[in-house]
Amino acid sequence: MKFCWILVLLYCCLIHQTYGQQRGLDFYIAQATTNSPLVRDFQNQIKVNQFDSLLILASQQPQVAFTSIDSYAPIIGGFGYDKAITNGANVNALVGVNKSLLNGAVNKVQFASLRLLSQAVRNNAAISQQDIKKSIIGQYIATYGDMLQVGFTTEIQDMLVKQDIVLKKLTEKNVYRQVDYLTFYVTLQQNQFKLKQQLNVYRNDYAILNYLAGIADTAQPALQIPVIDIAELPDVNQSAFFRKYYIDSLTLANSKSLVDIAYRPKLNAFADAGYNTSLEYRPYKNIGTSFGLSLTLPIYDGRQKKLQYGKIAAQEDTRLANSQYFAKQYYQQIAQFRQQLEAANSLISDISLQLKYIETLIKLNEKLLQSGDVRVYDYILSLNNYQNARSLINDNTITRLQLINQINYWNR
């Protein structure tokens, strides 16, 4: 009996926490989002894309560099490098400028690539946040269900303990047989073990909830009732989960433009100024400058352009098939969740109605038990029916919340 009262005391602590320190669903969602390294990674990816845009602009500016190449090739005893090749010596110190021209079309396509990449990152971040939210809500619901089950089983245990005192006295007075009391006591012990197991499950699920939220805390304050309503879902074409296919389509179209850009003529302007001499003739006058243009015009590359077009077309065909399959599965899955939700609501309603009759029966049996006018077996049977009904309501309530969580996952 001492163990029983310890369990009851533990649950009383939970009840005390309920009116003291509480944590709600919003707290865990906020903690999980803040602590997620994946969310921070997406934010940094967007910053990287912004730097890449600036790098593209910087690469289009005149590129200035200083170069100096100094060499001397002596001829000793008639042996040495051919002076016509080496000039005997080569000393230079030049400042060169290089600038690519006609970059408007190239910049347009490159900036479009970075914009699409940022859109994809933002969309993936939105989906990632939905994944985090769904995971946290699912674990919160499961943990809250454990807490309800602990409370319910403790309530049953409290009822059994009270009746144990009455039944023991009646057995001593030979109102009930010893075997009846032993049957009742075994039931009480079984409920004790069940309560202990449920407490272990509750603590473990709570630890998992803290782990998923990134909370390094062993404290387990009582959880608030999760208030979760069914969200209005967007049209599939507006969904973040479908938007990725739209972004992929634009990305493939832009990839084709990148292929076209690679085959455009490239024109560069260059110039240099400084000192460049072989030290042969009036080296003090070899200060000057040079400038010019360079033109690159692709002529033939082994049909690589056509092959790249074929590769992009195959990727587009895959994207189209995946988007059509997603749209079909989207509506089918939502319809299935709603059907299961309706069934859970109906079952909760039916069991709740039956529970009222069972509660009335238990109260009558408790009074009859105290006077010895009901069999112990009948009282235990009514109590088991009560437990089963309450457990079914608890299970279906948790199932209902989990189904709503599944549906709401698609509301981004």
General description of the model:
By secondary structure, this protein is of the alpha+beta class. The chain has nine helices and seven strands; from the N terminus they run H-E-H-H-E-E-H-E-H-H-E-H-E-E-H-H. It has helices at 2-19, 25-35, 37-59, 83-86, 104-172, 178-213, 240-262, 304-371, 376-408; strands at residues 22-23, 63-67, 70-72, 89-101, 222-223, 266-277, 287-296. The strands form two sheets. Strands 2, 3, 4, 6 and 7 form a five-stranded antiparallel sheet that branches. It is elongated and about 135 Å long. The relative contact order is 0.13.
Question: CA-to-CA gap between the ends?
Answer: 53 Å
- From N to C, what is the helix and strand string? HEHHEEHEHHEHEEHH
Please tell me the CATH architecture of the largest domain by its name. Answer: Up-down Bundle
Coarse shape: elongated
Could you report the average pLDDT, rounded to the nearest whole number? 86
The fraction of residues in strands falls at 5-15%
How many domains in all?
2
Annotated CATH homologous superfamily of the largest domain:
Outer membrane efflux proteins (OEP)
Describe the biggest sheet? 5 strands, antiparallel
- Parts with pLDDT < 50 across at least 5 consecutive residues: 1-12, 14-20
Q: Helical element count?
A: 9
Secondary-structure-based class equals alpha+beta
Radius of gyration: 39 Å
